Amino acid sequence: MQNIPTVKLGIISVSRDCFPIELSASRRAAVAKAAGDIYECKITVENEADMLKAVEDVNRAGVNALVVFLGNFGPETPETLIAQKFCGPTMFIAAAEDSADTLINGRGDAYCGMLNCSYNLGLRNIKAFIPEYPVGTPEEVAGMIADFVPVARALIGIKKLKILTYGPRPQDFMACNAPIKALFDLGVEIMENSELDLLVAYKARENDPRIPAVIADMEKELGGGGKMSGILPKLAQFELTLLDLAEQNKGAREYIAFANKCWPAFQTEFGFVPCYVNSRLTARGIPVSCEVDIYGTLSEYIGICVSGEPVTLLDINNTVPVDMYESDIKGKFDYKLSDVFMGFHCGNTPMCKLSKGELKHQLIMYRLLEPGKEPNITRGTLEGDIIPGKMTFFRLQGTAGGGLRSYIAQGEVLPVATRSFGGIGVVAIKEMGRFYRHVLIAGQYPHHGAVAFGHVGKKLFDVFAFLGVPEISYNRPAALPYPTENPFA
To answer: Can you tell me the distance from the alpha carbon of 72 to that of 69, in angstroms, rounded to the nearest whole number?
Structure first.
C-alpha cells in the first residue's frame, strides 16, 4: 500500500515583457539541468494567456508540485495566477545575476521582482512556498527545489488524507481530545467509528486464509517463533482487519491513517494488546495512534512524509533518576539533568527503530486486568530501547477553541540503557526543562509527541508555516526567554 505521495515536480519560468524572454528561458533550462528530475515547461509566461497554456501543460504532464521561477523581474499578475490555477503546492524562487559582464543587457532584476510577487500573492490570498532566501544561482536554486520536495509531499498528503478513528477516548484521557474542525480546514477528512465496528470487522476475519502468511512475516521480524507465538494468530487477524478497513474506507481519498482506542475494553473483548500491529503498520507508512489521538496520528503522518521513513508516537513520560544521570550521562554528554527525560509508549515503535525489540505483555494493563495471573489478554506490545541518534520531537495540535498550534524540538536519543519497560528511550533536548514549562505546559499540550528519527525541524517548520499554523514553538536557547518566563526566577 503506497500511503504517501510521490512528488512529480515541474518548473515554469516567467518573464516581464520589457525584459528579454530568452534570459528567463535560458536560466530556467540551467535550473532544470541542475535540479535533475523535474519537468521543464517550455512555455515562458509573459501574460495571462501564456499562464493558462503553461498550467495546462504541467497538468498534462502529471505534475503535482510546481516551481515558479522568476528568470527576470516577472509579470506580477500572470505569475501569481499560476499558483491560483495550479492544484498543488507551488514554490516561488528567483534567479541571481549571472556575471559582472552581463549587467546591461543580461541583468534580470528578479531580486526586485520577488518583492512585487510576494505583494501580489498577498493581494490574492494565494498560499505559496517561498524559501528562506529565495534567490540564487542554478545550483543554489536546485538545492531549494530539493528542500521543497518533502514539504510538498506532506502538503499533498494532507489534502488527500483520511483519518479513521475507532472508539471514544479512554476515561481520563481528555488530553488527547481536541476539536476536529481545524482538521477539515486543513483538508483532512475524518471518519469516526465505534469500537463495535472494529470488533465486528475483526471477527469477520477469523480463519482468514491470509493469516498464516502474516504470522510467518511476524515470526521473521521477531527473530523466529516462540515469541509469545500463541498470540500471533490474533495479531495477524487484527493486522489484516486494519489493512482491509483502510482499503474499504478510502473513498475519495488516497491515503489513510488510524486513531484507535486501545484500552481497557480492547483487551477483554479482542483478547490482546494491539501495539505490535500498530508498530508494523506505522513502519509501512500507515500511522496508527493510540488512545484515539487524531492530532497525534496526523503529526506522525506529516513526519513520515517529511522524513521519508518510519516514525513513532511517544509519551513525554518520566524524568531520568538522579543516580542514573550521574552514572550514565553527566560528564559523557553535554546535557543538564533537566535536559533529559524518557520518551515511552507501550510498544508501538517499529522494530527497525528499536535496538532489540521483543514481543511482551503490557505491564500497566497487566496490573489492571490480570494481576497475579499468567499474561494472556495483555500480550502484544513490542518492547525495547529506542535506537540512539538524532531525533525531532514535534506535534500539530488543536486548541480547545478550535485553532491550531504546534511545537518542534530537535535533540537526540542517547545511547543509555533505560532499565525500564515498553518502547522507551532516554531523550535529550537542549533546555528541555524550560521548553517543558513554557511550551508544553503553558501551551496546554497533551503528553503524546510524534518522533521523527533525524533532524527534520526545518522541513516541519516549513509545512506548519505553509498550513498557516499561527504558533510554531521550539526549544529556545537560554539567552532567549519565553514570553511567560519569569525574568527574576
So the answer is: 9
Q: What percent of the chain has pLDDT over 70?
A: 99
The pLDDT assigned to 177 comes to 80
Output DSSP code: residue 365: H
Name the DSSP class of 63: -
Question: For 463, phi and psi rounded to 5 degrees?
Answer: -65, -50
Other CB atoms within a 10 A radius of the CB of residue 322 amount to 10
Neighbouring residues of 429: CB distance < 8 A, sequence distance ≥ 6: 339, 393, 409, 410, 411, 435, 475
Task: Report residue 99 CA to chain centroid gap.
Answer: 41
Q: Which three cell numbers stand for residue 95?
A: 534567479
Do 398 and 295 contact (CB within 8 A), yes or no?
A: yes
Helix/strand/coil (H, E, C) string of 309-352? CCEEEEEEEEECCHHHHHHHCECCECCCHHHEEEEEECCCCCHH
C-alpha torsion angle, residues 266, 270, 276, 282 (rounded to 10): -70
3-state secondary structure 151-167: HHHHHHHHHCEEEEEEC
**Peptide bond before residue 264 is cis, with ω within 30 degrees of 0:** yes
- Per-residue DSSP letters for 190-254? EEEE-HHHHHHHHHTTTT-TTHHHHHHHHHHHHTSS-SSGGGHHHHHHHHHHHHHHHHHT-TT-S
What's residue 225's pLDDT? 58
C-alpha 213/C-alpha 232 separation (Å) is 11
Among 426, 216, 227, 230, smallest CA distance to 340 is for 426
pLDDT score at 171: 74
What is the 3-state secondary structure of 167-204? CCCCCCCHHHCCCCHHHHHHCCEEEEECHHHHHHHHHC
Distance CA 28, CA 287 (A): 39
- In tens, the pLDDT along 82-93 reads 999 999 999 999
What is the distance between the alpha carbons of residues 20 and 108, in angstroms, rounded to a whole number? 8
Residue 161 has pLDDT above 90, yes or no: yes
Using alpha carbons, select from 162, 379, 168 the residue that is nearest to residue 261: 168
The mean pLDDT of the chain is 95
Q: Letter for the amino acid at 131?
A: P
Please report, for residues 61, 152, 302, the alpha-carbon distance to residue 56 in angstroms, rounded to integers and kept in the order given: 9, 20, 29
Per residue in 208-247, pLDDT (tens digit) is 999 999 999 999 999 865 677 789 999 999 999 999 999 9
Q: What are phi and psi of 455, to 5 degrees?
A: -90, 100
Own/partner contacts of 137-140, CB < 8 Å, gap of 24 or more, are: 137/96, 138/27, 138/30, 138/31, 138/33, 138/34, 139/34, 140/96
In the block, residue with C-alpha cell 543538564: 336
Coil, strand or helix at 426: strand
Which grid cell sits at 153? Answer: 509531499
Residue whose entry in the numeric block shows the C-alpha cell 531523550: 427
